[in-house]
């Protein structure tokens, strides 16, 4: 096929059909995208952690948050090295891992 | 191919052109309405989720489900009429009074539903209801403008709605993430000021100086520190303005510096937990407490310094992020430097940790 005849074919009626096809595809993609956006609703809670500190030897311990924890509360857990009662120094969200997305 | 393409091709070529010429605006409006409808659906899901969570929390605490439903409906539609500002003299006291009444009413409503609830739990539940009410309001207002635009066929109304929609959704998502924290009574980003205050108090004895506001005395390099924070671990912001006023009256002429610590909204692109220093009363809200602090500071000519910790709205109302928690030590270092630079030994400094004390005791 000579290049000039190819250009002629594209330049003719088929060009208009391609144009219409692209236009329709664009609209469909747009609709699908906005529908998907409407469904996406992330409502999982972040993972909370509690930081405990021993007032006598300053040993730090981080564990998962338990119901009833609050900052400043004296915990009923004991220090692993000196057996002193621990107090809660911080409660925060687990830092996000860098995701590949 | 040749001559016979003419008419058919011409029609196909010109039809879209004519369509967009005459119906372009209608088409654009339909597209915008389609997008807004999707967002509204999502907002509806959010508010239903929030309502369900609040109802579950209420019934878990001991309320009957029927009563809880009725009570929640009442609280969600509870409105506040702010005083007339045509003659603004003395308006601060009026605003304060109205807000106090509202606060008491909501707490009492929660306690009617769950009579044997402890104060902190009642506070947390009230905060949960407020976050739910925020989502309810956002949904109702947007739906109002959407339906109004649809009814009147007003494209400009619809387009304006489409323009602000993405910003409104950010706000709505923030309130949605607040639901978890308020439900569990976990500290939120806004509580960073209270956390700094608690860390500085470091186990010293506290007394309640104003409604839901505690003060503790501490020493630093020969200066007396009076540290103010809202009473926790129930979720409330206390009355730091009232507390500062009383402390200044009690320690006349000795208070030489006020340092305020608060979370502040960051600009997009700024880092979470960035610290900035400045002057003035760093406190949000409707302005009653801010007014009181400014009034006292100017009357006694006390320098007013501020430290803010930057965060987005979503960070401020949801479970405290690690970055914010990690900023506490540096904030305290900066407070100490400000105290050293601005006061001498035997002088008194007031440090006010502003913010919601949910999940943060004293
Ligand atoms: Zn220990």
Please outline what is shown here.
The complex is a heterodimer of chains A (about 100) and B (about 350). Chain A has helices spanning about 5-10, 15-40; strands at about 50-55, 60-65, 75-80, 85-95.
Describe this structure in words.
Chain A is built from 2 helices and 4 strands. With 101 residues, chain A is of the alpha+beta class. Chain A has 2 domains: 38 residues; 46 residues. A 4-stranded antiparallel β-sheet of chain A has the order 2-1-4-3, with no helix packed on it. Chain A is rod-shaped, with a radius of gyration of 31 Å. Chain B is α/β, with parallel strands linked by helices. Chain B has 2 domains: 178 residues, no CATH class; 165 residues, 3-Layer(aba) Sandwich (Rossmann fold), CATH 3.40.50. The longest helix of chain B has 56 residues. At the A-B interface, α2 and β4 of A face α1, α5 and α10 of B. Bound molecules: zinc ion. The site of zinc ion (ZN) has 8 residues of chain A, from loops.
Descriptive key words:
heterodimer; A: 101 residues; alpha+beta; 2 domains; four-stranded antiparallel beta sheet; 2 helices; 36% helix; B: 362 residues; alpha/beta; Rossmann fold; seven-stranded mixed beta sheet; 7 strands; elongated; binds zinc ion
């Amino acid at each position: 096929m000579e290049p000039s005849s190819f250009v002629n074919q594209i330049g003719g009626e088929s060009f208009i059909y391609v144009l219409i096809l692209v236009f329709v595809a664009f609209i469909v993609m747009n609709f699908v995208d906005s529908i998907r956006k409407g469904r996406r609703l992330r409502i999982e809670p972040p993972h909370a952690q509690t930081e405990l500190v021993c007032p006598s030897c300053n040993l730090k311990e981080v564990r998962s948050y338990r119901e009833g924890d609050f900052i400043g509360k004296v915990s009923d857990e004991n220090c692993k090295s000196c057996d002193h009662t621990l107090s809660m120094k911080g409660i925060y969200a687990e830092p996000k891992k860098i995701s590949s997305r | 191919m040749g001559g016979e393409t003419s008419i058919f091709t011409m029609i196909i070529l010109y039809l879209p052109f004519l369509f967009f010429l005459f119906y372009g605006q209608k088409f654009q409006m339909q597209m915008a309405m389609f997008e807004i409808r999707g967002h509204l659906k999502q907002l509806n899901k959010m508010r239903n989720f929030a309502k369900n969570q609040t109802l579950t929390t209420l019934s878990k605490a001991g309320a009957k489900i029927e009563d809880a439903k009725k009570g929640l409906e009442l609280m969600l539609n509870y409105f506040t009429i702010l005083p007339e500002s045509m003659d603004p003299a003395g308006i601060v006291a009026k605003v304060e009074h109205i807000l106090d009444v509202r606060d008491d009413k909501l707490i009492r409503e929660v306690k009617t539903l769950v009579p044997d609830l402890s104060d902190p739990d009642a506070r947390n539940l009230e905060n949960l209801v407020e976050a739910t009410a925020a989502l309810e309001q956002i949904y109702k207002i947007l739906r109002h403008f959407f339906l109004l635009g649809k009814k009147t066929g007003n494209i400009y109304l619809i387009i304006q709605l489409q323009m602000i929609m993405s910003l409104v959704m950010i706000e709505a998502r923030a309130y949605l993430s607040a639901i978890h924290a308020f439900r569990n009574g976990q500290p939120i980003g806004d509580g960073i000021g209270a956390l700094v205050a608690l860390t500085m108090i470091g186990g010293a004895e506290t007394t309640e100086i104003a409604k839901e506001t505690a003060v503790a005395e501490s020493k630093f390099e020969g200066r007396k520190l009076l540290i103010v924070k809202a009473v926790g671990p129930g979720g409330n912001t206390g009355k730091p303005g009232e507390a500062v006023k009383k402390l200044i009256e009690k320690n006349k002429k000795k208070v030489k510096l006020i340092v305020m610590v608060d979370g502040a909204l960051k600009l997009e692109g700024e880092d979470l937990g960035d610290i900035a220093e400045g002057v003035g009363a760093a406190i949000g809200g409707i302005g009653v407490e801010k007014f009181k602090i400014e009034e006292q500071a100017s009357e006694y000519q006390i320098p007013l310094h501020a430290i803010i910790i930057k965060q987005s709205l979503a960070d401020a109302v949801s479970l405290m992020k690690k970055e914010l928690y990690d900023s506490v030590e540096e904030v305290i270092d900066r407070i100490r430097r400000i105290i050293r630079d601005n006061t001498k030994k035997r002088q008194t400094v007031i440090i006010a940790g502003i913010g919601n004390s949910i999940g943060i005791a004293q």
